[in-house]
Every structure is written in C-alpha cells, then in structure tokens.
Write a structure and sequence with these properties.
Blueprint lengths: L2 H6 L6 E3 L2 E7 L3 H18 L4 E5 L2 E6 L9 H19 L1
Antiparallel strand pairs: 1-2, 2-4, 3-4
Amino acid sequence: MDVNKKMEEIDKQWILSENKIIRSFVFKNFVVTFDFMNQVAKLAETIHHHPTWTNTYNKLEITLWTHDTGGLSDLDFKMAKKIDLLFEEFNKS
C-alpha cells in the first residue's frame, strides 16, 4: 500500500504520525461533539474498525491504525473517508 497516495485521498487535516493517521475536530459544544462520536461509533461497528479517540468538551481527536498489523491498512483510510463525509454533513446543519 502506498501510504502517501492514500493520504492524498483523505482530508488534508489528517496527519501521518508514527504509522497512524490523526485528525482533530472542534464542534459547537459537548452535545454536538458527543453526537458526532456516536455517529462515528456506528460507522466503526458497520465496517468493524474502531478508532482511538480523545474528547475534551467540544474537541475530539481521532487516531486510526490497524492494531492487528501495528500500522496502517486500507481499512484506516476507508474509515477516515467515512469520517470526513460525516463531518461534512455535521457542518451543513
């Protein structure tokens, strides 16, 4: 897998660090943040790939990597794309 090519296919706010991809989000308040997290959790269950995340009030940081391989896989980039689309929808409302 060409990680640099895959990075071009996801939002530019994802950063590559230590063989993981990370993106930070800021929302209006905690309730909206938690709602977004709930939607991401549903996506994660659908594709059986779960993020590592940290939440403080209206801020959320999501880290993706494949635990089984100890690095990045196509699933990480698939999940990142789905998170990007979901975030776009949240920004419309």
